[in-house]
Specification:
Layout lengths: L5 E3 L2 E3 L6 E2 L3 E3 L4 H13 L4 E3 L15 E3 L7 E5 L4 E5 L4 H10 L2 E2 L11 H6 L16 E7 L5 E5 L4 H10 L8 E8 L1 E2 L2 E10 H6 L1 H7 L2 E6 L5 E10 L8 H25 L4 H11 L3 E5 L1 H5 L7 E9 L3 H15 L7 E6 L14 E9 L5 H13 L3 E2 L9 H7 L3 H11 L8 H7 L2
Parallel strand pairs: 4-6, 5-6
Antiparallel strand pairs: 1-2, 2-3, 7-8, 8-12, 9-13, 10-11, 10-12, 14-16, 14-17, 15-16, 15-19, 18-20, 18-21, 19-20
């Protein structure tokens, strides 16, 4: 099965399999004009409109019973401007295609997330991010945006426009699909560079004790903690003068496919069938991956294949609160009787100025909890969410959470700015769905 969401019998499902929708109709526009016409027609017919990417969100952010816009035909590179060092791409372009084209042109994004299956608009609209000391989310690398508004007109905005355009730009980079349908994005790019990745196991307590130092000494630091163990796997990515020393084909297949996907998949099946085996499997899993160092172009270092399907919750907490939050999470798992077979992923981002960015106005650390698809996750996620929210956590817009507009009005200093802008751009709530009603208010 492909890594994207599926649509069978008119039912749309997301990648994680936890969200389904039956739209009244599905449209695949081949141009911005066709998309604008589809939006106007939906308004005439009294139908809501949502655009969907590859379905990598675990929330119902893209679900609709109205008109579902599928962007498969709105793909490709519009322009590469080497003077401005920008690239403008159609909204439905998958990140993996953008990365490959940029690399061929000797260019790269500065930072990216850990998978690249998503469309550029889906990834940015939900706040997808990697890890970085100074370099922020994918949306923070946007220089200009084009979107179709509720009245079916095409609007362009950037940080250089009128006051209204700047306000739209500040919000629409992570717009949740609430302000309009993004049709093109202009990203800042830089000359292609090399990253050296150093992966190494490290005890949980040592990572927490040395976290500030590990963060300060590395451009990109992240780690995975294996619940039911005191073990983590750390990864440091730093710019390198070279030479290129990619992971060998056989070693790459063994570690990234056989261990991280194949054996891991089997371990998940065993854990789902016999939960009592999970702690023992976790001990083995946490010791299976040995240390390794390799040097390659950015997207080959930042991203990796994720073939084992899961459901995920992720919260951003203030970076200073990370170690306390993680210690509480570990204590909760240890005393709970829960059986957690998936590692917990920890990353960071610097503060940014995007209205509804999880890193808006504060240096942030991200804690992501996962459960294997088809395994009951509610008890674990509920207990984790209680810890995250006690530390002023902000949930990833595309991952499972139970927060609502009342919570976000407290969590985001500029929440009112966003909702006021939405009132101006979509007063009739053409782009509304149940998820937006909950997180932004009616």
């Amino acid at each position: 099965m492909s890594t994207t969401a599926s649509a069978k019998n008119g039912t749309w499902r997301n990648w994680g399999g936890n969200v389904a929708a039956r739209p009244a109709r599905q449209v695949e526009p081949a141009s911005v004009e066709e998309l604008a016409a589809a939006v106007r027609k939906a308004a005439e017919d009294g139908l809501k409109v949502k655009a969907v990417g590859t379905g990598h969100s675990f929330t119902s952010i893209a679900a609709t019973d109205g008109v579902l816009i599928r962007p498969q035909l709105l793909t490709g590179i519009r322009t590469i401007d080497r003077d401005a060092m920008t690239v403008t791409v159609e909204a439905g372009t998958p990140l993996k295609r953008l990365n490959a084209v940029l690399a061929r042109e000797g260019l790269s994004l500065t930072n990216m997330g850990d998978i690249m299956e998503q469309t550029v608009s889906g990834a940015t609209s939900t706040g997808t991010h990697g890890t970085g000391r100074e370099s922020a989310s994918i949306a923070a690398q946007i220089k200009a945006l084009e979107l179709v508004t509720a009245e079916g007109s095409v609007l362009s905005c950037s940080e250089k426009g009128t006051e209204e355009e700047r306000a739209i730009f500040a919000a629409a980079r992570i717009g949740l699909g609430a302000l309009g349908i993004v049709t093109a994005i202009t990203f800042a790019v830089e000359p292609l560079f090399l990253l050296t990745a150093r992966e190494e196991p490290m005890p949980f307590e040592r990572v927490l004790a040395e976290f500030d130092q590990l963060w300060a000494e590395n451009e990109h630091f992240e780690f995975y903690w294996f619940p039911h163990t005191g073990n983590t796997n750390t990864k440091r990515n730093n710019r390198s003068a070279g030479p290129e020393q990619p992971v060998g084909q056989l070693a790459g297949w063994f570690e990234d496919e056989f261990l991280s996907n194949g054996v891991f998949q089997v371990a998940q099946w065993v854990g789902r069938a016999a939960p009592a085996t999970v702690p023992a499997i976790a001990q083995i899993s946490s010791k299976a991956l040995s240390g390794r160092t390799y040097t390659d172009i950015p997207y080959k270092v930042f991203t990796s294949p994720r073939r084992v399907r899961f459901v995920e919750m992720e919260y951003a907490v203030p970076r200073a609160a990370l170690t306390d939050t993680l210690r509480e999470l570990k204590a909760m798992v240890d005393r709970s009787g829960l059986r957690v077979s998936f590692p917990v992923e920890v990353r960071t981002a610097p503060a940014d100025d995007i209205t509804l960015s999880t890193a808006c106005g504060r240096d942030s650390a991200y804690i992501a909890v996962h459960m294997f698809r088809g395994t009951p996750y509610q008890a674990y996620f509920t207990a984790a969410e209680r810890i995250f929210t006690a530390h002023e956590g902000r949930p990833h817009w595309g991952k499972v959470h139970t927060r609502d507009a009342e919570y976000f009005a407290e969590a985001y200093p500029r929440f009112g700015e966003f909702t006021a802008l939405r009132d101006r751009l979509d007063p009739e709530r053409l782009f509304q769905n149940d998820y937006l009603r909950r997180v932004l208010g009616a």
